[in-house]
Amino acid sequence: MTTVSSGVPAIEIAGLDKSFGSVKALDGLDLTVPTGEVAGFLGPNGAGKSTTIRVLLGLLRSDAGVARMFGRDVWHDAVELHRHITYVPGDVSLWPNLTGGECIDYLTRLRGTADKKALRARRAELLERFELDPRKKARTYSKGNRQKVALVAAFLSDADLYILDEPTAGLDPLMESVFTDYVREAKEAGRSVLLSSHILSEVEKVCDTVTIIRNGTAVEHGTLDELRHLTRSNVTAVVGSDPAPLARLDAVNDLQVTAHDGGTRVTFDADNADIAGVLRAVTALGVHSITVTPPSLEELFMRHYGDVIEADEVAAEVAADGVPSDRAARKAARRAAKKAGVR
Amino acid sequence: MSAVATAPAGPAVPTIGRARFGSTLTGTGRMIRFILRRDRVRIFWWTFSIVAFYLYFMAALGTFDAEAMAGRAALMETPSGIAMGGPGYGVEDYTPERAVANEGITWWVIALGVMSILHMVRHTRTEEESSRSELVRANVVGRHAPAVAAIATLTLVNALIAVFSAGIIVAIGGEYVTVADSFGLTVGVALASMVFGVVAFVFAQLTVHGRGAIGLSMAVLGAAFFARAAGDMMETHGSPLSWSSPFAWAQQMRPFVDLIWWPALLSVAVIVLLLLLGSFLASRRDFGGGMLAERAGRAEAGGSLAGPVALAWRQQRWALFWCSLGLGLMWFATGTMLPDIADLMRDMVESNPLVGAVFGNDPDGFVTAFLGIMLLYGILCVAAYAIVMGGRAKAEESAGRAEIVLARPLARSTWYGAQLLVAGIGTVVMTAVTVYAMWAGGVAVGDETFSFGDYTEVLWPYLPAALCYLGFTAVLYAWFPKATGLGWLLLVYGFVIGMFGSLIEDLPEAANYANPLYWVPEAFVESPEPSHMIGLGVAVVVLFGLAFLGFRRRDIPAV
């Protein structure tokens, strides 16, 4: 095993820019993954996730900014760095005339290995766990099977950093759980992982921190708990008195009131930042029952993007009219206030 | 009945009829239209190319006078003439249309046979192998509709080509060209080609992968070619061995000599039998299933598959093998024609001054001039190989395979170097095969105009020139990946300048400088100019250097 000096982050990206012609794929991206951490990397299609990863792999040359892994420049020291990392793309393409086993061995031999015996044992174990037949020609593999070839090759290598770009696309839920097992194993062994994914439950299961990017910029970063704090929890309660005071609270959104046996049923989303005030108000109404559900990562993601999409609408309206409309201005002001309050 | 109309809808239970007769063919008409729509450009180019080939062949032979035709007829009676041409009907009194029939049928059956094989497999097994056919078959489409539509369209395309080709022959043919003979020629070709298409239909039922069906069908086509050639060599006008081949069924109709129609019935009978066999197999197999099991490959890579050079070799070796074999045989056959070439050339130059401009007017120099032109053709084929192989790196990159390899501890220059090294070795091998195959062909028929050493002296100056084509493509790929295809420009330029440069008056000498072949000495006549050879060598080094420089600094994937 190779040791890497501690204290240096596994991935360190600051102010990274990358343009393809007139399209700005990365726009001042910041991203840090400390060693030993499993970092989730989220964003809609075209947000710049794969571009970021290809910059990290030294395949794309950044226009500006810093990109380092283990303190080394990703472009200049690419080959040396690649001895310590492993990569799984989201859409694996293999050599059609090679069998899956040959592809795995070829990729493994490019890294070189000391302990051949241990490697064989681990190879057999991985093939069995991922239920992959290595004797078939790569041309006959389905997408899921090609993905498995890349995963087996990745987990065969004794890497310090795993860079995984939507690695489970095309895998069934059973295989996905095998994958999460191996990610956890890597984490327990102190390895670092950058996991770009669309499957939010997967990210929730294994990731310590989450970074959400959009249009090439990191828009949120933190632990899941921290991110949850930024958003709203769903509150459902049955109260004794008139819930009108709740409607006046800024922290209460989308309030719905229905009649219920022996009281009134209220459902709303509460800003986590002021959850204490909201609970006080609810308590004052005489609570019969209450459930508070934290947002799932999916809700968080959707809400975040819903928010940004709204912002885009404002921008579009401003652009169209020259002046922001009343509605748009109100929305923008509310959002600005909220952001300021939270930070 | 308003009460019924307002009642809430119950669960929907459609009335489903019983299968009607012929329901397995439902949708055939729509599928035929769809195939024609999908292939319209392809069908146009196939038809256009084949008809243009007939036109060119007829027109070119029309410029021959009687003496030249007699010389050509003599060449057609040699073994290589029989192998590359036909059974030799009408050589006693060779006319352009007889030559077209005798020499052309082989090549049209090969071309249209390949077209038919690709058409059948593309619309049956390849569709099934991808998920496309599944989408179609889940619709209101009968089980046999896709295959029947493929066969129907294949028949249509072959008929279309036969009609247009016959039309062009009648249109430009002389007084002895009859409509019946013209159709005898093109219909015979169409039916023989259809045989190979139907062979592919049968194989498409047996193999799981389109590639397998294509490979097996091509093997049948190749075997049929050799059976006909060998059979005709054994006996004038064909032996029983010839008659085992669909090629003979078209040739033995003897158009323009003594037209008989019944050999065409052999093609028809075999087509019908194979169609019955194919449908029998098709009704008994599962969707996506085959009858020949896919052989399991290696579970572990052999020890030699280590490193990018080994992998590039794995990727390119079969292309190199087949190109060497195919082109090698072709140049070998060319070599076997050498003893007869001087006579033929003399006649040709006398009848056509344009030929004299290309090959020179000195009768003794004909063999040298002929070899020179053949070597130019040969080296242009090598250049084409180099350009294609130079583009392999691009294919690796666009498919995403370069990415997963470069994410491993592998320097870019090592990976690219491996690709270029294997392509370069292939180019060198192809050059040697081209030159020595001509030598071997000559030796085989006792021609000793030039020795092995002479050929070797001709060979080596070609090597740096051939590598220039690879280097040029490599530079384009490294710096302007989207323009990799422009590598062909250098070849087209060299071809035009090399073939027709002497026909253009006042062509400035400098126009030749960009043509790598300009710097190569004239074969068997000049000795290499040291400064030219050094210049070519420097050009190769500079091109490869530039390629590495560009590839090191650009984005991947850029294409």
Automatic annotation (TrEMBL), chain A:
Species this chain originates from: Myceligenerans pegani
Official protein name in the record: ABC transporter ATP-binding protein
Basic residues biased stretches: 330-343
Domain ABC transporter: 11-240
GO MF, one example: ATP binding
Family, per entry: Belongs to the ABC transporter superfamily.
Main location: membrane
Region (Disordered), start-end ranges: 323-343
Keyword Transport: yes
Record's keyword terms, sorted: Antibiotic resistance, ATP-binding, Nucleotide-binding, Transport
Automatic annotation (TrEMBL), chain B:
TM ranges: 43-64, 105-124, 145-171, 183-206, 213-231, 259-282, 318-338, 366-388, 418-439, 459-479, 486-504, 533-551
UniProt keyword annotations, A-Z: Membrane, Transmembrane, Transmembrane helix
Domain of life, per lineage: Bacteria
Keyword 4Fe-4S part of the UniProt annotation: no
The name this protein goes by in its record: ABC-2 type transport system permease protein
